[in-house]
Design goal:
Blueprint lengths: L2 E6 L7 H14 L4 E6 L1 H4 L9 H14 L8 E4 L5 H10 L4 H5 L2 H9 L6 H15 L5 E4 L4 H18 L7 E4 L28 H8 L21 H9 L4 H10 L5 H27 L3 H29 L11
Parallel strand pairs: 1-2, 2-3, 4-5
Helix pairs in contact: 3-12, 3-13, 4-7, 4-13, 7-8, 9-12, 10-12
Bound molecules: iron/sulfur cluster.
Length: about 325
């Protein structure tokens, strides 16, 4: 099977955007690829954070991923900072990466504007670490959304630079563009994101979710219950597309356009269908965070050992090609 790599930052609770936009896809892909999923804590320290919260966030994220369906037996889920080779390889790649290529990255420009008071080198170097994350496992496939394609292309460039300078070593990975939806935030204006405060958390209780969903904006044309609406102009409809099946979906579409259904009823039906997805995740999370906690920790530990072995091999190979080896081992 081909090697797939992906990473996720431990920056807070997982929301529907993370779940439907990425994680549900990884759950499916783990049956088709040898999958490495990294909790990328080294990336997370490039933006302001509270050190005392980091260990809790890491274990919480790993637990949530398992609760969402990441298979402990199939997928190698690990914590990035537990594998020192990622930072080693980043340095080797730094030595062959033109500065201009990093300065052009869209994500760097966004972050530079967002954290103007504290733009650190890590923000600039982020794509190089990302390239090391992928290539240290000789990753061939990287599942991404449109906004991350530039980073995969950058990783391909890094592999090309290295291979042409030191000889064939790294594969040129492919972006696996999936049909994963871009999930809108509850404000209806932008992508669901922690920084925008417009999220529905995967582990939130039904009561908390309803408190967020019930006042959410719908199609502004539906002022009165008798006013027909256009589902395509409504955030709740975009959520139905994630969780509601046919024939109910068509029924709701028709109900909206004919004013046969009111917005509150429509939201209740969305919530009911959403909870069919989230209830089992929340239950599983409860088990894993309680009596299953040791099992999660042991698995992360075992996976880190596995990753260090694979990464160590790649580092040895890359160092050898770069002439970074003990003089008494130079072959004639
Ligand atoms: S009926 Fe549903 S889809 Fe139509 S505007 Fe109301 S909430 Fe949105």
């Amino acid at each position: 099977m081909k090697v797939l790599f992906t990473g996720i930052q431990p920056t807070g609770d997982i929301h529907l955007g993370n779940y439907f936009g990425a994680i549900a896809n990884w759950v499916r892909l783990q049956h088709e690829y040898t999958s490495y999923i990294s909790v990328v804590d080294l990336h997370a320290v490039t933006i302001p954070y509270e050190p005392s919260e980091m260990p809790g966030r890491v274990i919480d994220l790993a637990t949530t991923l398992y609760a969402c369906g990441i298979d402990m037996e199939k997928t190698i889920l690990f914590v990035q900072s537990e594998v020192p080779g990622h930072a080693d390889l980043t340095w080797m790649f730094n030595a062959i990466t033109p500065l201009g290529e990093l300065e052009r990255m869209t994500q760097f420009k966004d972050k530079r504007d967002q954290f103007r008071a504290s733009v650190n080198v890590g923000l600039l170097d982020y794509p190089v670490l990302q390239a090391a994350d992928i290539l240290i496992y000789k990753g061939e496939v990287v599942p991404v959304g449109e906004d991350q394609v530039q980073h995969v292309e950058f990783t391909r460039e890094v592999a090309r630079h290295f291979n042409s300078r030191y000889g064939p070593t790294f594969p040129e990975c492919q972006a696996l563009l999936t049909k994963s939806p871009r999930v809108l935030g509850l404000d209806g204006d932008s992508k669901m994101s922690k920084s925008k405060g417009n999220t529905i958390g995967v582990l939130e209780t039904p009561e908390k979710i309803w408190a967020k969903v019930s006042p959410a904006k719908t199609d502004p044309a539906r002022v009165r219950r008798t006013d027909p609406g256009t589902p395509e102009k409504c955030t709740i409809w975009s959520y139905h597309l994630l969780v509601t099946q046919e024939p109910e979906l068509t029924e709701i579409h028709n109900g909206c356009t004919t004013a046969g259904i009111g917005c509150i009823d429509c939201k209740k039906r969305f919530q009911a269908n959403l909870m069919k997805v989230l209830d089992p995740i929340r239950e599983r999370y409860g088990e894993l965070a309680g009596s299953g906690r040791k099992m999660v920790e042991d698995r992360l530990e075992a996976n880190a050992v596995k990753c260090r072995a694979v990464a160590g091999e790649t580092i040895r190979e890359a160092k050898g090609k770069m002439g970074l080896k003990k003089v008494w081992k130079i072959e004639s």
